[in-house]
Design goal:
With 333 residues, the protein is of the alpha/beta class. It is 31% helix and 22% strand. It has an 8-stranded mixed sheet, with helices on both faces. Strand 9 and strand 10 form a beta hairpin.
Length: 333
C-alpha cells in the first residue's frame, strides 16, 4: 500500500492552472465530403485556483462548465490544453503516473444517490479510498472513517447503514466525507446542492465552508445558481458557449458586472438581493444574426450593445489591474 505521507510536493504559486482547455465531441452535422463535424463543448478555457480558495464556475445549462470540471479531474480527456496541478502537468499521464495525483483532487457529484454504490455501507464507501491509498490497518481505517463521518455531521451508527437509509442531504454529506478522506488539496463539486431542498442546501454549503477553514481546502464549485455561488465563492468565472467571458472576485462581479452576459445573468436571477438591474433587452428577432454569419463573439445575437467587431472577431479574455478579466470588445475599448 502507498503511504499517506508520500504526497506530491507542494509548489509555490497557484494550486491549479487550467491552460487553454478545449473539448470537441464527434457528432455534428455532415460536411461537404460526407464526414461529420465535431461539437465544441469547451473552447480555450483558462483559469487558476489558489490554495484554500473557492472558484465558482457559473453559466446556463450546456455552456460547458461540467465538462471543464471533469477535464480538471481527468475524468474526461481534453482535446487540447493542459491541467497543471502543484506544478505538474497531469493532462495525459498514464494511470500509473496519475495515481499519486489522484489523492490531491477529489470529486463530489450532483446526484447524491447515483454516485454511491447501493450495495456498500457508509463505512465501506468512505473507507474505500483509504483502503486503496492509505495503508492503514483495518482498525485504524475504521477509526478514521468514524471520525470522517463525525466531521460531516453523521453519527457513528451511520457506519453500517446503506445509502437508501439516508436522506438526500445525508447522502451528500457521505459523498463529501469520501472526498476529503485522503486530505486532498482540491475538491471539485459539480452542482453538489442542486438536488437538495433549499434548507438542506444551506447546511451542506456551510459544512463545505467549515471544512475549507479547517483543512485549507480549495474548491472548484460548479453551479447555475447565483445565490449559491454568492454564498460560497471567493472568485466567480462566468461561462457562455464553451468560453469564460468574465472572471472577478465575488464582490466585484455582483456589484459591477462588466460583460453583457454577466449582466443578463444577474438581472435574471430570481433572488432580489442579486437582481440589482433590469434585464437588458435582446435585439428584435429579425435583427438576430444567424450562427453561420457570426465568426466572432458567441453572445453577438443576444447582445444589445454589440458592434460590428463583435461579429467578426472573437474577444479575448483580457485581465485588468483590479484582478478582473473580461472577454468583450466594448469593455476592452
Amino acid at each position: 500500500m502507498t503511504d499517506m505521507t508520500d504526497r506530491t510536493d507542494k509548489t509555490e504559486g497557484p494550486l491549479l492552472r487550467a491552460v487553454a482547455l478545449t473539448k470537441h465531441y464527434p457528432g455534428g452535422s455532415k460536411g461537404m465530403l460526407g464526414g461529420r463535424s465535431s461539437v465544441v463543448a469547451v473552447d480555450g478555457v483558462s483559469f487558476e485556483i489558489n490554495r484554500g480558495e473557492t472558484l465558482c464556475l457559473v453559466g446556463e445549462s450546456g455552456c460547458g462548465k461540467s465538462t471543464v470540471s471533469r477535464m480538471i479531474a481527468q475524468l474526461v480527456e481534453p482535446t487540447s490544453g493542459s491541467v497543471i496541478l502543484n506544478g505538474v502537468d497531469i493532462t495525459r499521464l498514464s494511470q500509473a503516473k496519475m495515481r499519486p495525483h489522484r489523492r490531491d483532487v477529489q470529486f463530489v457529484f450532483q446526484d447524491p444517490y447515483a454516485s454511491l454504490s447501493p450495495r456498500m455501507s457508509a463505512g465501506d464507501i468512505v473507507g474505500e479510498p483509504l483502503e486503496n491509498f492509505s495503508g492503514l490497518s483495518g482498525e485504524d481505517r475504521k477509526a478514521k472513517v468514524v471520525d470522517l463521518l463525525r466531521q460531516v455531521g453523521l453519527r457513528q451508527d451511520a457506519f453500517s447503514r446503506l445509502p437508501f437509509e439516508f436522506s438526500g442531504g445525508q447522502r451528500q454529506r457521505l459523498n463529501i466525507a469520501r472526498a476529503i478522506a485522503l486530505d486532498p488539496d482540491l475538491v471539485i463539486a459539480d452542482e453538489p446542492v442542486s438536488a437538495l431542498d433549499v434548507s438542506v442546501q444551506a447546511q451542506v454549503l456551510n459544512l463545505m465552508m467549515d471544512l475549507q477553514d479547517d483543512r485549507g481546502l480549495a474548491y472548484l464549485f460548479v453551479s447555475h445558481d447565483l445565490a449559491v455561488v454568492q454564498h460560497i465563492g471567493h472568485r466567480i468565472a462566468v461561462m457562455f458557449a464553451g468560453r469564460i467571458v468574465e472572471i472577478a472576485s465575488k464582490t466585484a462581479l455582483f456589484d459591477d458586472p462588466q460583460h453583457p452576459y454577466t449582466r443578463t445573468l444577474i438581472a435574471a436571477a430570481p433572488v432580489p438581493a442579486i437582481r440589482k438591474m433590469r434585464p437588458e433587452a435582446a435585439p428584435e428577432a429579425d435583427a438576430l444574426a444567424s450562427a453561420e454569419a457570426v465568426r466572432g463573439c458567441a453572445f453577438y445575437s443576444r447582445c444589445r450593445g454589440r458592434i460590428e467587431q463583435c461579429r467578426t472577431d472573437v474577444p479575448k479574455l483580457r485581465p485588468s489591474s483590479d484582478g478582473r478579466a473580461v472577454a468583450c470588445h466594448r469593455v476592452d475599448a
